[in-house]
Amino acid sequence: EELSAVLQQHLMADFTGIDWMVRHGRSMAFSVAIHVASNRLCTSKFYNSIEPVVFSNATADRIPIAVSGIRGMGFIMRHYVESEGGNFPPKLITLFIKCLQNNDLFQDITKILDTASLDMLNECYRRSLKKLATQSDSTEQIDETILT
Known about the structure:
The chain is mainly alpha-helical. The protein folds into two domains: 1-101, no CATH class; 102-133. The protein contains eight helices and no strands. The protein has helices spanning 2-11, 20-36, 38-41, 47-58, 63-84, 90-100, 103-134, 144-147. Helix 2 (20-36) runs parallel beside helix 5 and helix 4 packs across helix 5. The longest helix is centred in the last third of the chain and has 32 residues, at 103-134. This is Putative gcn1 general control of amino-acid synthesis 1. Pfam families: HEAT_GCN1_C_2. It comes from Pipa carvalhoi.
């Protein structure tokens, strides 16, 4: 009863009109709940109410919410592999594949990765190359026969 109350009042509450950061927090908490207690949540009592929430999270317009939803779908799939021998509901599989083939998701992820790569390159330049460039030349004489 307590689990049902927490699910209905907090994790599966109506998300319309709520700030996306709150939705993101709820989707993350929901994903963690599925991960930790999938044997209690993926039962006939709760699954019919859990499924639409996970699916709506996975198809959300914000990438962090969609990632949490896809992660939740993965935890549900893991539950089906461990407890039911991999007999997945067809809707789960089709939506999971559709989410992974979403071009917008891939574009946003590559933008994030490109930005991260650029930031790392700038950090490397700032710390290492600038420092090396400002150092005085070495007074060591290198034998020219070694260089050939």
